[in-house]
Amino acid sequence: MYFNTHKRYKWLHFSEDCLYLNVHAPVRARGDPLQPVMIWFPGGAFLVGSASTYDGSELAAREKVVVVVLQHRLGILGFLRWAGRTGDSQARGNWALLDQIAALRWVQKNIEAFGGDPGCVTLFGQSSGAMCISGLMTSSLARGLFHRAISQSGTAVFQNFITPDPLKVAKKIAQLAGCNHNSTKILVDCLRTLSGAEVMRVSQKMRFFKLHSQEDPQKVVWFMSPVVDGVVFQDNPIVLLTQGQVAPVPYLLGVNNLEFNWLLPFIMKFPMSHLRKETIAKLLWSTSTLLNVTKEQLPLVMEEYLRDVDDHDQKMLQKQVMDLAADATFVYSTLQAAHYHHKTPMVGSCPTGHATTRMRSTCSWI
């Protein structure tokens, strides 16, 4: 699933038949030892991402590692969950994560044929891929399938990683698809008859990652995401993290400067010119469910980030808005994840611009 139309991304191949992965292996002589394996989880807000857009050959050649780039179902096809009021689940959701787990199992079974060591597997990814890695660390289905993890700008603590009301999202999708029916089974069967192109058109109608200035933020669906299904996740990963139910593996996590520098103006069409504090307050309210800021907290947030900024200083207003958005989402969730993992002696945080928690690892295992 992509943010806009086929035309903009016509150089990419679109298909429901997407369960493939790419393996990049260094040149290996007979008798060489098995090499460490690194599995890349692409990001893209659970809506965009493919293995073909990443070339792992240079990393494999330079660092003598076997690089695997996976891909999975996205958007509606990857995350739709429909459970009726009686508890019957016609579409349980988390298909994307099940695809990821299937890829990890494939690696365990087959990677030796490419010179990779199935006993030395590191997961690494960015944005939504990083969130999935963080989430899989709390899933019993993924236990034993990897031995190290790296989350680059994203963790399962992110506000919207778990969809709180998947039925509300599913009903909106069904309405836009013309599949309204009282019977859950008939409704889901109707959705299953849609072609891939029709599902993409429904996805575009959902207006993922678009500003809804006139709509109640509580009704906005920013993107499709995982759910608590009792299969991949027995509970919200945040709850599992607080209970210590997490894979005891070395974990490195971090964030970048200007996390929202491209997302706000280019994807969400957040107007970055002619900003005023009054306008910023309205825009922050419209994105409050994405930024994890309540209506009551907005004045405090405005005071913290904008109190010393002149209303005519456009550069500083833009910078502070970017910092606010980044801190409220990626930075906060990363620091919280590090806090939950702090009892694990192998957790580390390598800052890439932001000052984060102190190192608990030499990072020599990367």
From TrEMBL:
Key words, A-Z = Hydrolase
Q: Broadest EC class?
A: hydrolase
Q: Which domain of life is it from?
A: Eukaryota
This entry's Gene Ontology molecular function terms read: hydrolase activity
* Record-annotated Carboxylesterase type B domain positions: 12-342
The record's listing under InterPro entries reads: AB_hydrolase_fold, CarbesteraseB, Carboxylesterase_B_AS, Neuroligin/BSAL
Q: What is this enzyme's EC?
A: 3.1.1.-
The keyword Hydrolase is annotated on this UniProt entry: yes
Query: What is a single Pfam family found in this protein's UniProt entry?
Result: COesterase
Could you say which protein family the record assigns here?
A: Belongs to the type-B carboxylesterase/lipase family.
The molecule here is called Carboxylic ester hydrolase
Gene from which this protein is expressed: CES4A
